[in-house]
Amino acid sequence: MDSSASFDKDRHVFYLEMMLDALPWQYQDQEINRVTLAYFAVSGLDILGALDRVDKDRVAQWVLSLQACPSHKSDLRDGEFYGFHGSRSSQFPQDDNGSVRRNGSHLASTYCALAILKIIGYDLMRIDRETLLISLRNLQQPDGSFMPIHIGAEKDLRFLYCAAAICFMLDDWSGIDREKAKEYICNCQSYDGGFGLVPGSESHGGASYCAVAALQLMGFIEDDIVSKLPSSSVIDVPMLLEWCLQKQAVDGGFQGRCNKASDTCYAFWVGGILKILGAHNFYDKEALRRFLLTCQSQYGGFSKYPEEWPDLYHSYYGVTAFSLLEELGLKPLHVELGISDFLANGV
């Protein structure tokens, strides 16, 4: 892991291809999130220009097999969410009457499933969009937030973002009350300009990305809004911009919160916010690049911190960070969706 090294595209392709083929035993406790792990591998290979390494038909068949479906259309009023399961282990068989014994579909898994299908070029009009979108509204709470499953779960900006991304990819906003969602997001902006996961909580890089990306997807903030100031906005953009820029540490990396160590993934979470706002030239890109290269593994992939072993999550966000830095040979990002820019690439 040499800070003077260059971005090693070929090794990253090898690492992600290996992860897509067979996960090491250390990921056993993440089995329930297999769709999310597949999203990291497939999307990463796509950004690296190596989507040809993916068996698209096999992947599409597997992802589609994980969609939860009600026994009857009338069941859409039962309060459950009929999205995608995170893995086969959460997909229980039907009983003798054809009813689902337990619906374990999850909002984040559904976002990842649709993102994978979008990346490999599957026509999302072919899935049961009506069932998904009607039942998606079951997850939105009176305050505008979303739960990831239909009962007994937390509610915060992560799942609101997933709902917005799902509706955007399906080009149908019937699954979300956008005004209520906007109100909830605005209530999550803190005194320092960043966003917490819930109103009143500490500002966080990931939560702030979810807030800004969701607002952008829903059409509530303009492209490159910083260049249009002092135009009115639903959020305090100058304070948010200052908070983001303060997150670049002396080592060049980005922190997720104040007084935390720099972490590879926040190069995307915070860097992505700056890109959406139109402020991507306001931070020290060369310093960030040097930090990321200290997290690049000689085996391919990226680690969370310098001089540690790589993992799939940080490897993906390391690749997306280099795309934001406009590394040669990488596809540009549709930053709000967290995948390659399918419009720029003619998909």
TrEMBL record:
Gene Ontology molecular-function annotations: CAAX-protein geranylgeranyltransferase activity; metal ion binding
Root EC class: transferase
Stretches assigned to the Prenyltransferase alpha-alpha toroid domain: 7-338
Keyword annotations of the record: Magnesium, Metal-binding, Prenyltransferase, Repeat, Transferase, Zinc
Record-linked Pfam families: Prenyltrans (PF00432)
Database matches in InterPro entries: GGTase_I_beta (IPR041960), PGGT1B-like (IPR045089), Prenyltrans (IPR001330), Terpenoid_cyclase/PrenylTrfase (IPR008930)
Family statement drawn from the similarity comment of this UniProt entry: Belongs to the protein prenyltransferase subunit beta family.
Required cofactor names: Mg(2+); Zn(2+)
Protein name: Geranylgeranyl transferase type-1 subunit beta
Keyword flag NADP: no
PANTHER family: GERANYLGERANYL TRANSFERASE TYPE BETA SUBUNIT, GERANYLGERANYL TRANSFERASE TYPE-1 SUBUNIT BETA
Gene Ontology cellular-component annotations: CAAX-protein geranylgeranyltransferase complex
E.C. numbers: 2.5.1.59
